[in-house]
Amino acid sequence: MKMKETLNLGKTKFPMRGNLPVKEVERQAEWEQEAVYAKRQEKNKDKTPWILHDGPPYANGNIHIGHAMNKITKDIIIRSKSMSGYRSPYVPGWDTHGLPIEQALTNSGVDRKSMTLAEFRKLCEEYAWKQVNGQREDFKRLGVAGDWENPYLTLAPEFEAQQIRLFGQMYANGLIYKGAKPVYWSPSSESTLAEAEIEYHDVESPSIYVAFKAKDTKGKLPENAEFVIWTTTPCTIPANLAIAVNPDFEYSIVAVEDRKFVVATDLVKSLAAELDWSDYTIEGAPLKGTDLEYMVAEHPYYDRESLVIVGDHVTAESGTGLVHTAPGHGEDDYFASMNYDLDVLSPLDDQGRFTDEAPGFEGVFYQDGNKISIEKMEANGRLLKLSYFTHSYPHDWRTKKPVIYRATPQWFCSVEKIRDNTLDIIDNDVKWWHPSGQTRIHNMIRDRKDWVISRQRVWGVPLPIFYGENGEPIVTPETIDYVANLFDEFGSNVWFEREAKDLLPEGFTHPASPNGEFTKEMDIMDVWFDSGSSHHGVLRTRPELQFPADMYLEGSDQYRGWFHSSLLTSVAVNGEAPYKSVLSQGFVNDGDGRKMSKSIGNTVSPNDVIKQRGADILRLWVTSVDTYYDVRISDDILGQVAENYRRIRNTVRFLLGNLFDYDVKADAIAYENLDSIDQYMMNRLNEMVRNVRHAYDTFDFMTINHEITNFLTQDMSNFYLDYAKDVVYIELPDSSKRRNMQTVMYEVAKAVTILLTPILPHTTEEIWTYLQEEEEYAQLAEFPEVVEYANTDELNTKWSAFMDFRSDVNKALEKAREEKVIGKSLEARLHIHANADTQALLDSIGEDLATYLMVSQLDVHQVDNLGEDAYTIDIEHALGATCERCRAVKEEVGTIEAAPHLCARCANIVVNNYPEALVEKEA
Fold it and tell me: Which of 428, 547, 721, 746 could serve as a FRET partner for 810 with CA atoms 20 to 30 Å apart?
């Protein structure tokens, strides 16, 4: 027998490398075959529900890294809730309607005009399902557990039917109306856009100052007075019907040569500089804005009047204090003009080309109209100045083309009617986890009057509105119920397959159609109405879910998107929010903090990361960054994450290796029978469990990562496991010290494995196969409970003081190494000169003090006159020779006749238990 064989060297089949790209696929196949998710739901069926409602990603294209962060975060939360006393199912969803799918089909060569709307919609549905199936496999590959075979889709007949019923309730509550007001219009998409579908890019625009000649000044201004406006949209001048002034501002008459300009008094000096008025005078006393109301000016180039009106939206921050007002092209303009019965003129068609309502501009694209408008005003002497500047301008988020404000007949939801109730709910009923979340959505709702919900597209849920012979809209509980039932049975395509009369109940009559003739609305609903109806179509219909949800979690852009639309529709019909709390995340940028872009080539594909490193590395990355804000990812960053994963894996591997002969039922030592150091480590484990569970409860994923990593690194690897080899390797297999440590090691391995399962499920299930637990899978286990130990304070006081002392010893040992006094720490002999308190502390540690400090020899001398120091540390090379078995330097090595190469401790073990090892040595 060799001496090495007398040691209890660690051994385990748990591999050093995870080979995650391969092993994860195998493990996921096993989970699906064994229905692990279903088993977790069955186990939790009688527990308190905690529901995270999935915000539906758009079903178009491959998933990106933002999708991955979102789904992984949700999975971590739901897994943690499922393992901590809650029933927390996950029903994934998809947003499946909208323009991108129409465009994708068109780009693939589908000729929409060669088929019926119903036929084209069938192709849209097929395309959407293909995208859903592809994304579903990608999300499953991330390790996300859920009811993947029964997701919710906004194109599903049962969902569409509930959306119709929700619309019907909102209509009955007086919140839906038709009107013509300026809305965001995308000429490139030929449709209205919601605010959530707008993004901003810099553009160069003309900046013009225009003088409107006065026509009727009510005797308060010179007859040759001119009202000066500033605008950056000359193309909207054909639609000008008014000039707005602030009722509280003062306005002056500025004489420049032979002209009399009217501008805000506070802006005279800045305008003089801007317009090169080198020699000007102010005539007469200033007039209030209210004095100018109802004066009339001449249009710059049409034979048309422009009324002077008042509006609070007029500011003195820039411009002239007078605002060019085109009610059909601006929201402020529209609302200000409502008090004056002005027409809502918007002389543009769906493609953004001028109609015959703008003489001289017919058929011209609106942007090209800028030049024509400027030339006309210049020819008439109305243009005072032209320059160009770069500024941020709204664009269609899909086509990336500029949008316009255009007044068209649209269907609206009144936000104004439910605004106060909604704001009260935001401020008092919902927990907003992000520090700025409440303020962001509060301000958005506060400043919003309505929501345009109609879209001039094809692929979506049609507005369930009929029209009578006189054009009157018809929406009744009877029609809503009938259409909803049709959609439930046939899907919304039935609206486009049948005539209006076949979509109405048999024998339906209405005063608006005495002859029984009806037509139907052909606009569809805003896709944000679709997804915003999910609380009605999913939370209230799926028996495993509940309303309201405990949490909505999406990106920070959803304060103006899904969080927003869901809140409005829910308050409209339920009088409460659809969620109890909201958690938002930032965006994922590249390693330099730049926005990801295919054109730049700095995107990171989650599928590529998984193929190269594995999903668990991506999942660990999510917990390594502060997802409340924008985060970064790159190959270098993922390399750092992979290194952290390696440390975690190798620490657990060391634990498993030293548990090869440990039977948890036969060998476990009760807490009260553990040595003090082992009890202390159980308390350190307990504190880590407490902190990690709190972090899970507060969705603080970075803290979870840091707590577990620091515990494994600082408490275990750098201390407990560092000296453990001197015990678990050296002592007899059944010795109490070794079983004590194995008990702690097992409890640490088990707790860490369970706590990491929501984050690293593939790796922890691999570890689980090496543990001795009743649950078939780690995913079916419960989080460890926080234990209250009676001696916690006493242990913490004692061992915290020792750890401080140990830190000083390690510094002294390092210095001794640098000075070549010793090589390894086991070559050291420590001389500790200690005051009474330190002496008492070291005495309380007991005979294993040198072991804990990882030195071979130790002398403690009590000294009463150390001054301010509690102790001093001197180091010399240990005396004696190195023990062949434990590698400690001992003076007795070479003096024990029966075991001349061993120290007294090892000689006692070997002589009495492994004498054959000595025989072989002698031979």
Answer: 746
